[in-house]
Amino acid sequence: MATAKFFSFACLRNESSNYGELSPKPHYPSMPKYPKGVSVSTDEEKSIHGTESKAVFSVNGMSCSACAGSVEKAIKRLPGIKEAVVDVLNNKAQVIFYSTFVDEEMIRETIEDVGFETTLITEETNEKTSQVCRIRIKGMTCTSCSTTVESALQLIPGVQKAQVALATEEAEIQYDPRILTYSQLLKAIEDTGFEAILISTGEDRSKILLKVDGVFTEDSMRIIESSLRALSGIEDIDIDPELKKLSISYKSDIIGPRNFIQVIESTGSGEFKAMIFPEGDGKQSHRQEEIEHYRQSFLWSLVFTIPVFLTSMVFMYIPGLKDGLDIKVVNMLSIGEILRWVLSTPVQFIIGRHFYSGSYKALRHGSANMDVLIALGTNAAYFYSVYSVLRAATSPSFKSTDFFETSSMLISFILLGKYLEVLAKGKTSEAIAKLMNLAPETATLLQFDDEGNVVKEEEIDSRLIQKNDVIRILPGAKVACDGFVIWGQSHVNESMITGESRPVAKRKGDTVIGGTVNENGVLHIRATKVGSESALSQIVQLVESAQMAKAPVQKFADRISKYFVPLVIILSFSTWLAWYLSGKYNSYPKSWIPSSIDSFQLALQFGISVMVIACPCALGLATPTAVMVGTGVGASRGVLIKGGQALESAQKVNCIVFDKTGTLTMGKPVVVNTKLFRSMVLREFYELVAAAEVNSEHPLAKAIVEYAKKFREDEENPVWPEAEDFESITGHGVKAVIHNKKVIVGNKRLMLEQGISVPVDADEVLAEAEELAQTGILVSIDSELIGVVAISDPVKPGAREVVSLLKSMNVESKLVTGDNWGTANAIAKEVGINDVIAEAKPEDKAEKVKELQQSLGKVVAMVGDGINDSPALVAADVGMAIGAGTDIAIEAADIVLMKSNLEDVITAIDLSRKTFGRIRLNYFWAFGYNLLGIPIAAGALFPSTRFRLPPWVAGAAMAASSVSVVCSSLLLKNYKRPKQLDNLEIGGITIES
């Protein structure tokens, strides 16, 4: 059957052109015609027609069946319509169509052309009731801020889940798109007083940023937007006229970025030039802006603060300068006081305006954050100083004492602390930046003629690659996108993605991963996954989501943050009041009061010191920064940890349940022996067995099919006889009717359940195979046991050593498998596991996990790789999926071991323990700092030692505490896996890392 090429209405890509052809009017392709009697499979149909969709319309004005008939006939005349049913009684039309040829709007317009008012019923058409939105939030300073935003989001109807992370300054919101839009979420965040910037509005769509040069008037903007919106597959367009930037969200399986560039450049008769917007990662650029902001603010504050410091604390002890500063201008007001007032005012109100706006936003929503403490402390010092100098200016005898240096130095030190903090926080997410840098900047796009010859090569930005593009990969170059090889042979180094150190051989038909390195040979690959769908993007998204997810231990800090700032304000006021009253009623000797101040000013300094030394930031950053670094370190080592919950659970694990096939064993079983109990040609025997097993996804079934191919060496891809009434009995085997013969392939239990007797000879063969750690598969034909197939799946190198190391870490190991008892016991004995459960169905594995949790109180980790492991992975406290396993297992797991080796089970547990050790240390420092610092700032040591903490020193200590917590988390980047793994002996060979 000839393969037809189709175009969607507008400018979908044609393989023989770079950007695709543009049609000035909507172009409706005709449906393909098949020869009579030719059947087309569902997959073929999907690849030819496109995605099948359903739409329901409300049709008003129909009065009889003739009306309904005319509507139905009009719809069916459209290309791509599979089925159309019009219900005249309920005034509805249901249409099933292929989205490549037609869309909802075209169908709606067709019905209206017949003469009936029509609207799309989105509630019945759109089955998606959940969408994920990621938003960057600017201006959060402590846990109180993030808690305020999170609480506000959770109160919005339609929000299903909201997480706000202080460390990443992002929110991840799961919401019902039928009730809410992302713009409403942005407004809700901005209503809490913070700036909100949209990052993404769904996991199922791609996004590209384009810069447009040329005449950019309102009319030109409208023209460009209209041209783009006419394209099929466009989901959203956002235009920034100032930056000349277009943000386009689209469906990558329908259209791509090169189409957009072509449309834009052809829209204005050559006036416009479009390109990828020249900016780095949004998060990184935002971080750089924040770092630069704090750096500039700190430097400007120094310009004013240093003279204030010198006039108040240095020049006063230099005789000539002191006399000049003490010259009176008005009454008792001196030149030095005027200078300090003038210099500190810009620091307080211009450079420090951020603290005022932050305080206002927090207080407006009934919460208090770090900005409130800083604003109160600096205002107390500044306005008392203003009062003091104004009184001196109006009194011939009042000698003022100002604290202008306190307010300006406080703000300067806090800005320095924030600058160092954002610098350090930027380093916590370096793992994501490194992952994103794996993708090459450019790619070589190939174009072919009808005979398949290359007619053109073009170097394009790798972000412009579209699905089904053919890309040339030269030796030493990075693979530009996910795809499969259509020409050439080579070896590809996939260590940066999978952790597999040895280059993997690639030839026609093999898949390749974007970001990996082509070692030798030229490859032509066809792109299958681009943009956010690529494996690299999925890993980045997984790590980003992990860094967003809060660990349960963080809830403790969140609860404290609600009361922390109000409590500190009360303590600060109480401290001032206690010292003031003590001084007024002479409760302590007047000799305690320094000569330059009075008792009121001494009390005020103690109160301000208490207010500014308290640090809610250190508490808020203790957990998320450690989780960010820990998950980043794990990702760089091929251990993908899905968030704080998984980290916290993993460090408590004291029992691990291993699956056998593909986990403890290599997962590539091979047939090693065949025993027949009846005279039969081996080729005929395997013909029947392979015909039954080819429908199964089980590794043992695949091994049998591969072995059966040896009897059909004359055929490259043998076609097996058709299996009728096929049934897969999970965990036991399969049965089918082939050539009118009832064939059952499976374990002994399945045979007995089917009423098939197992002779003594077969039992002996099974026992012999089990002693050799082989799996015996029984085969019956027409209710008679015909033979036994022995399959061997060798144990993974190092499995015994890993089990031994886990034991030394006080972690028990258990084996649960669907295989027979003999083989399971043999494997368990080989690796050193004593507790075995065999012949277990998927639900049995999950039940075993629950039994260990409930009856024995164990914290259980399940390690598996298959679909049948998914229930147990979900049931376990921590599910660990082998990276080479199925997508379902990986989705169900909390931790993904990308390298597919068992050593990483130890790495995952050890890393989680080290990360939580660091979190405990951070909390110890954060709590210890506040518990020790606040009493000292309140003057606890003053009566006995005369030691007091000036407010500006207290402010510097507060800033240092946040920086120290972040730096403590950053030390996790130096993580080393357990030394025992560095010299692991595998099969007599010592492997050194």
Kindly describe this structure.
- Its EC number is 7.2.2.8.
- Belongs to the cation transport ATPase (P-type) (TC 3.A.3) family. Type IB subfamily.
- This protein is 45% helix and 21% strand.
- It has a seven-stranded mixed β-sheet, sandwiched between helices.
- Strand 35 (878-882), helix 31 (887-892) and strand 36 form a beta-alpha-beta unit.
Task: Count the DSSP helices.
Answer: 35
Average predicted local confidence, pLDDT? 80
How much of the polypeptide forms β-strand, as a percent range?
15-25%
Percent helix = 40-55%
Structural class: alpha+beta
Shape: globular
Main sheet overview: 7 strands, mixed
Alpha-carbon distance between the two ends = 54 Å
Oligomer: single chain
Strand order of the largest sheet: 24-36-35-34-25-32-33
Low-confidence stretches: 1-50, 985-993
Kindly state the number of beta strands. 38
Radius of gyration: 36 Å
Keywords:
single chain, 993 residues, alpha+beta, seven-stranded mixed beta sheet, six-stranded antiparallel beta sheet, globular, disordered N terminus, disordered C terminus, P-type Cu(+) transporter, translocase
Write a brief structural summary.
With 993 residues, the chain is an alpha+beta fold. The protein is built from 35 helices and 38 strands.
Please render the helix and strand layout as text.
Layout: H1 42-49, E1 52-60, H2 65-76, E2 81-87, E3 92-98, H3 104-114, E4 117-120, H4 122-125, E5 131-138, H5 143-154, E6 159-165, E7 170-175, H6 182-191, E8 195-200, E9 206-213, H7 218-229, E10 234-240, E11 245-250, H8 257-267, E12 273-276, H9 282-313, H10 319-325, E13 328-330, E14 333-334, H11 335-351, H12 353-364, H13 370-394, H14 404-428, H15 430-436, E15 442-448, E16 454-461, E17 470-473, E18 482-487, E19 490-493, H16 495-498, E20 504-506, E21 511-512, E22 517-520, E23 523-529, H17 535-548, H18 554-584, H19 599-613, H20 616-636, E24 639-641, H21 644-650, E25 655-658, H22 660-664, E26 670-676, H23 682-693, H24 699-708, E27 724-729, E28 733-738, E29 741-746, H25 748-753, H26 760-771, E30 774-781, E31 784-792, H27 799-808, E32 812-816, H28 821-831, E33 835-837, H29 842-854, E34 860-864, H30 870-875, E35 878-882, H31 887-892, E36 895-897, H32 903-937, H33 942-945, H34 951-970, H35 979-982, E37 983-986, E38 989-992
Parallel strand pairs: 25-32, 25-34, 32-33, 34-35, 35-36
Antiparallel strand pairs: 1-3, 1-4, 2-3, 5-7, 5-8, 6-7, 9-11, 9-12, 10-11, 13-14, 15-16, 15-17, 17-23, 18-21, 18-23, 19-20, 19-22, 24-36, 26-31, 27-28, 28-29, 29-30, 30-31, 37-38
